[in-house]
Amino acid sequence: MADVCPVCGSTLQPALTSWHFECAGCSYEGSNLEPKILEQAVGGDLDEAERESGLSALRKSNFQLLAERLEKLMAGRPAGRLLDVGSAHGWFLDATSGRLEGLGLEPDVAVADAARRRGVPVRSGFFPDALAADERFDVISFNDVLEHIPDINKTLDACRERLQPGGLLVINAPSRRGVLYRISRVMQRFGVAGPFERLWQRGFPSPHVHYLDTRVIEALAGRHGFRLEDRMSLPSMKVQGLYSRIRYAKDVPVAKAMAMTAALGVAYPVLAVLPPDIEVWFLRKSG
Question: Cα 181–30–251 angle (5° rounding)?
Answer without folding.
Answer: 60
